[in-house]
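Entry type: protein chain
Record version: 2
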Amino acid sequence: MIDYMSTKTMRILVLTCTTRPNALGPAVADWFTRAVSAQAMRLEAQLVPVSLADLDLPFLDEAEHPMAGVYRGRHSRHWSALVDSVDGFVFVVPEYNHGMPAVLKNALDYLAREWAWKSAGFVSYGHTSAGTRSVQHARPVLSALRLVPTSASVAVRIDDAVVDGRIAQDARRDALASRMLEEVVRLAHALRPMREPLRDAAQAGPVPGAYVRRLTSADAADVLVLQRCCWVDEAFANGTLDIPALHEGLDDVRTWLDQWTAFGLWRDGTLLGMVRARGEGAAWHIGRLAVAPQMRGSGVGRWLLAFVQNEADPACDRAELETGAGSAGNIRLYASAGFQRRSGHDARDIIQFVKPLRTPASA
């Protein structure tokens, strides 16, 4: 059984939300990252510690509304890229006058799309309420930005927890921190299908709710499952199990995902189809065209084939692909898409197809 949780590393930003000199925030953030380090390793989550004090964000100074995603300031572009690169957050927040720090509200207001459908947990600290009123102040703001706060949080009472400027070791508090991180990471995994279509690199697909994007080595588990679903039929059709896609493991898939230009069609976190290609001289080699069994006959394969041709390297003047001689459905698809069959079969009984590509010079 494949553990999907272990194949996709979630990046969690641990954000210290104060800029006040000599604030306790850095010590609290340091305690948290140390306390949950073993849990983060078990969950295969990457913690990214950042302090607002180091970002030097001025009071919101962008002329365009954050929804436009147009940032002119270098500080804004840096903040946007940082938030966009992570999957969830742990906000380390003090309580100032029954509320969250103004610098946190300002940092939240800078962006829009970058926050959407990511998980968020809180480590609060303070005196009487241990910072919990700051968390209550922040929650509706996060919800408005489509951040999804966890129910779990950690509240640190300064009078009980701080010794010589550091957070004292406490097994119960450490366990609460680890439990909260686990909820943040699991929620980040669950929300992944919601946030991926919002990324700049995602494009609408041929069926409602679907989108296409580049595949990376982090998608190896989904690719492996789709391959095995699809190439079993090919094995029966061609009377052979000597098909690489049926014998590859996760490491093999990760390797070729780093070497080919591969695209996946997704909907609701499910890989519906994929295709890969790469340029070799003047040829754009297309392969691993696969469509999930439940989507066959919907036009997904034809759409992916056309899509990958449009992504061809400008140096390529033709597309090439091949299939087994017994793969009648593939042969019909390629012929109807304008591919010409090359004469003869090789020793593996493979049929090769070729099609001229429209190049910028001839378009």
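Comment: The two ends are 49 Å apart (CA to CA).
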